[in-house]
C-alpha cells in the first residue's frame, strides 16, 4: 500500500526519533512509504488533528501521489479519524492501529493470537460509531486486518460477548502459566527474562545463548510470543531463560493490558536482562521507555542487568562494567557475533549467587506459590 506518514511536533524532545520509528513501523507492516509530512502545533485540532490548512495540503498530496493510506504518528480520536478520511478521501490509521496491525501479522501462538484479537476488539469498540461496512476487513491491508477472517460483529452486544469469551480464554491460559511457574518455584529453578526496546537484539541473544533457533529479524516486533528454554551454566546447573515481546514508546494501552499474561514471565523473573541497542543514538531514551513499561506491569523492582548489545557496530570490545560497590552494572556484547557471551554467563551466575540467599529464596517462594517452600 502506498502511504504517507504524518507527524505533528508538539515541542517534545523525542519528536524526531518517534517519527523515524513510525517509518520503521510502516515498513514492518508492509507499507510503501511515498512521502512524509510534518508540522508544528501547540495542540491538536479538535476536528482534523492537523488543522484545516494542513489537511487541505495533505489532500492534494494524497491525490497527486495516488496514496492508499495516511498514517499518523499519534493516537486519533474516532471523530478525528472519521473526519480525516472524509476530507482526504482515503484510509487513515493512527499509531495505535498500525502497531495492532503488525501484531496481527506476527502473532503465531494460540495465546498470542487471542491476545492480539482481544486488543484489536477493545480498540475497535471505541470506533463503532464509524460503522463497520466501509472498512471491508476481508480485503486486508494495513490497519484493516481485523481480528481473524471471520465475519465482523456489527453490534456492541456481539462484540462484548466476543471480548468476554476471549478474556475467559486468557484466564485459562493464565492459569496454565501459573501452574508452570509454581512447578519451577518448587524446584527452585532460577528464572531470567530478556527485556528491551523492540529490535534491540533480544531474540538474537536468546538464540546465541540457548541455540533455540527462534525467529529473529532486523525489524520491529519480530518476536511477539514468549519463548522459554533451559540454559545450562556449568557453575550452577540449569536455569530458565525467556525471550519476550519488545517494548516501544507510546505502546497502546490495550496491548499492555492484553499482553499481561505473556509479560508475566517478566513479572515473575528472578533477573531481567535489559538488552540495549548500543548502536542506537536514542538508546538512553529507549532505556527509559522500557523501564516505564516495566513499572506499568509491576516489574520495576526485579533485579536488572544491562546488556549493551551490538558493540561490533560501534567499535567497542567485550567487557564488564561494575558500579561503585563492585556489582556488575553492564555487560558489553555482540549477540550476532557471539562476542562477550562468556562474560554474560558469568554475570548471570554472579547475580544468581547474590540473589539466592536463604532470605531471597524464601521471599521468592512466597511470591510464586503463595506459601513458604521447605
Quick tags:
single chain, 374 residues, alpha/beta, 7-stranded mixed beta sheet, 4-stranded parallel beta sheet, 11 strands, disordered C terminus
Name the poorly predicted regions: 129-139, 148-154, 358-374
Question: What is the overall silhouette?
Answer: globular
Report mean pLDDT, rounded to a whole number. Answer: 81
Record field, number of beta strands:
11
Note the run of SSEs as H and E: EHEHEHEHHHEHEEHHEHEEEHH
Blueprint (SSEs and pairs):
Elements: E1 2-9, H1 15-29, E2 32-40, H2 52-65, E3 69-72, H3 78-88, E4 91-93, H4 95-106, H5 110-125, H6 156-186, E5 190-196, H7 202-210, E6 227-233, E7 237-243, H8 253-258, H9 260-267, E8 271-277, H10 283-296, E9 304-309, E10 319-322, E11 328-332, H11 341-355, H12 358-369
Helix pairs in contact: 1-4, 4-5, 5-6, 6-12
Amino acid at each position: 500500500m502506498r502511504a504517507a506518514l504524518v507527524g505533528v511536533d508538539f515541542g517534545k524532545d523525542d519528536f524526531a526519533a518517534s517519527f523515524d520509528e513510525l517509518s520503521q513501523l510502516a515498513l514492518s507492516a508492509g507499507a510503501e512509504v511515498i512521502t512524509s509530512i510534518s508540522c508544528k502545533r501547540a495542540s491538536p485540532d479538535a476536528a482534523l488533528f492537523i488543522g484545516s490548512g494542513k489537511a487541505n495540503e495533505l489532500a492534494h498530496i494524497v491525490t497527486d501521489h495516488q496514496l492508499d493510506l495516511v498514517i499518523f504518528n499519534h493516537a486519533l480520536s474516532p471523530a478525528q479519524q472519521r473526519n480525516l478520511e472524509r476530507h482526504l478521501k482515503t484510509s487513515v490509521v493512527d499509531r495505535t492501529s498500525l502497531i495492532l496491525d503488525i501484531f496481527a501479522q506476527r502473532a503465531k501462538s494460540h495465546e498470542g493470537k487471542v491476545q492480539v484479537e482481544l486488543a484489536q476488539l477493545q480498540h475497535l469498540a471505541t470506533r463503532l460509531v464509524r460503522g463497520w461496512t466501509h472498512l471491508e476487513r476481508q480485503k486486508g491491508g494495513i490497519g484493516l486486518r481485523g481480528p481473524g477472517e471471520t465475519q465482523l460483529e456489527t453490534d456492541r452486544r456481539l462484540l462484548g460477548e466476543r471480548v468476554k469469551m476471549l478474556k475467559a480464554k486468557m484466564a485459562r491460559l493464565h492459569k496454565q502459566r501459573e501452574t508452570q511457574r509454581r512447578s519451577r518455584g518448587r524446584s527452585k529453578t532460577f528464572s531470567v527474562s530478556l527485556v528491551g526496546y523492540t529490535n534491540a537484539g533480544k531474540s538474537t541473544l536468546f538464540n546465541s545463548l540457548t541455540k533455540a533457533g527462534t525467529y529473529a529479524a532486523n525489524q520491529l516486533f519480530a518476536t511477539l510470543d514468549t519463548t522459554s528454554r533451559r540454559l545450562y551454566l556449568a557453575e550452577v546447573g540449569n536455569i530458565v531463560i525467556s525471550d519476550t515481546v519488545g517494548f516501544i514508546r507510546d505502546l497502546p494501552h490495550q496491548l499492555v493490558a492484553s499482553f499481561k499474561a505473556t509479560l508475566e514471565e517478566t513479572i515473575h523473573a528472578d533477573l531481567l536482562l535489559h538488552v540495549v541497542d548500543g548502536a542506537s543514538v536514542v538508546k538512553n531514551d529507549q532505556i527509559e521507555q522500557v523501564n516505564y513499561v516495566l513499572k506499568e506491569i509491576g516489574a520495576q523492582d526485579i533485579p536488572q542487568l544491562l546488556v549493551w548489545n551490538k558493540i561490533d557496530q560501534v567499535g567497542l570490545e567485550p567487557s564488564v562494567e561494575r558500579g561503585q560497590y563492585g556489582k556488575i552494572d553492564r555487560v558489553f556484547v555482540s549477540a550476532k557475533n557471539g562476542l562477550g557471551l562468556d562474560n554474560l554467563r558469568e554475570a548471570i551466575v554472579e547475580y544468581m549467587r547474590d540473589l539466592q540467599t536463604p532470605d531471597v529464596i524464601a521471599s521468592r517462594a512466597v511470591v510464586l506459590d503463595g506459601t513458604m517452600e521447605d
